[in-house]
Amino acid sequence: MRKILLVDDQPHIVRVIRLSLERNGYTVVTAANGEEALNQLTQSAFDVLITDIEMPRMNGQELCNAIQERMPEHKLYTLVITAKTDLELREWAAGLGNTEFLEKPASLRQINLKLENYFAEHQ
Amino acid sequence: MKSERLGFVMIGASLSVIALIMGLFFYSQRGERLAQIRVQGVSLARLLSSMPMERLAPALAQQGLLDVVGSLQANTDFAYATVDNPEGVALAQATAQGILPPRIAISPEPASWYGQRRVSDKPNDQVFQEFHAPIVTDGERVAQVRIGYLEPPLMEMGNKLSFLAMLALPVFLLTTLFYLLVKREIVPLKTASDQIKKMLDEQPLSTVELTASGEVGEFVHNFNRVVRAAEQRILKLEEQSEGMLTSSKILSYQKARIESTLQSLPDAVVVMDEEGVVTYASRKLEMISGVDTKSILGKKVHEWCTKEEVLGLLSGIGSGAPRRVYGGSTEIKSDIDPQKRFSVNVYPLFSPRDEANIWGTLMALRDVSAESLAKEARKEFIARLAHELKNPLHVIGMYTEVLRDDDRQVQGAHIESCNVIQDELERANALIKNMLSIAELEMGSMKIERTRTRMGDFLKDVFTNLTHSVDTGTITCRIENSRELSSAYIDKEMMRVAINNLMTNAIKYNRPDGEVVLAAEESDSEYVISVRDTGIGIPESDLDRIFDRFFRANDDAVKERGGHGLGLALAKEIVELHDGELRVESRHGEGSKFSIIIHKNSSRLKEVV
Fold this sequence. Notes:
The structure holds 2 protein chains of 2 kinds. Chain A is of the alpha/beta class.
């Protein structure tokens, strides 16, 4: 069972990605911001984290850093989808490990492809 | 005339010299004669006194010794020889012609028996030198011999005349000659000298008016030639000087024109020679960069310029390389004002005669802060717009993918996708419109067009349109005091946008079941249009930033509600274009009130204009 935690504050985005992923057989849990996501992580284990950066209450960066600090046992493949493109952010993402960076506007196809490749290698 | 006096003086002097010489001569002559007389007289007196009486005074009319003496002494000053008895009666006498011996007594004192005395015979106007000696017989004076000589006068012409003439004549001639010489040579010399002196003192160069002969005349003639030659030269020099003055004036006029042209250029200009020494700097340099124009003249670049980039551009100067073309441009930041940017352009200056010769460098500075800032603003704007559009495109893209999928999808999903796409497109459109409006407003290219507007009707219209087109959800919207307002001159469309923005904010940032009130008040001096809400409010620390473009409070309640941060910025621009103010009052967590204030006076003024 391939479990995905999907985090974005825009409901339209969450909805369409979720639909697409579920159609491709993944199990998807959604969160509207970093805080909610952490909550979910304490309750279950996930394989993949797909997250936006610009969110209220705890943004994507803070979320990933928190996961590294507090829950290092979660070996999550992280997909960061964001409109921000600055070098610092990319370097941060690269430094996280097991993390990929997708620039908005991204397509459902791209997202599904990334997941396919990951699961092909790791399962 | 001085020369006359001089002549007289000279004549007088020479005459007195002659007189003096003559006087001395005669005096010495007389002295000699007196001495001679004395010698003779004394010896003769003694001789005679030693003679016996009979020889001296013979009884009969025989020639006595005296007569012999007399005749012997004919050519001298001999005057008389007498033998007197002690009473003074003459016993024998011999006189020269025309001489009458004076009768005088001889003192019986033996001491004066021998002697010499001067006897003057006033009646006959004769003066004698008399020598007397006693004739002593047996110790008694029996008679007195008296020999008298005429005292030689002081002056006696006689045979000395020719000698004197010989003496006087050359002296006199010399004097005359000298006088003539002076008159001929020295006097004209003096005259010429006086004229020259006068000329030097008062007048410009002039010739000496003098006719003279001889050396002086020659001298004056040559002097006048010199003067005339000098005058010619001076005339020529004056012409040249005038010519030079004129061309110098023309040059400095041209220079002034060129300098004023340089000064009025929008760029500040610095001209350097081939060594890199500053020869000219326009005043704008000081205005632009704060460098004092006067202080850099004559200095090399590195003495007053600290900017690396500029020094790099100018490194080609004075390198000695014969034809090295340097130049280029760079942009530097101002040290004084960090907002300012200058473009620095460096050009080599070629000699007009020989294009291969570089004789200097021109450096032009321009204040490009406005352009620079505009460029940056443009970059920012585009970056911002692109960034903001990414999200809508992201959504639209993904829903389009859904739409493209085969019709495995439920019909509802299709419709939903289309709705979402439409929404996002509208949002994107609104964003673009807002951003363009703000950009245009800031550039000043958007002008408001005021028309006479009945404020009551206008506000009602805005309110109605908005509440019908926007989903107000659970929020209640009200309008107050809209009827008694007078007319104002406003740009309807713009003001509508501003009020709409305020109202959509009020609705968006509200709490469930909250309230939004559009109100209007009028006083003598102004209109106040306000939008109140019972929403989330604004913290004090954000109050002065909420009107900034793209500003969104770092508040979760704000972030959860989407927005671009442009609504208030745009509203503020519009209100300010109407010469009005947009004010805010707010309590965090309770609600906000935004007030548009439009001054009546300004609109009345615009009315008149």
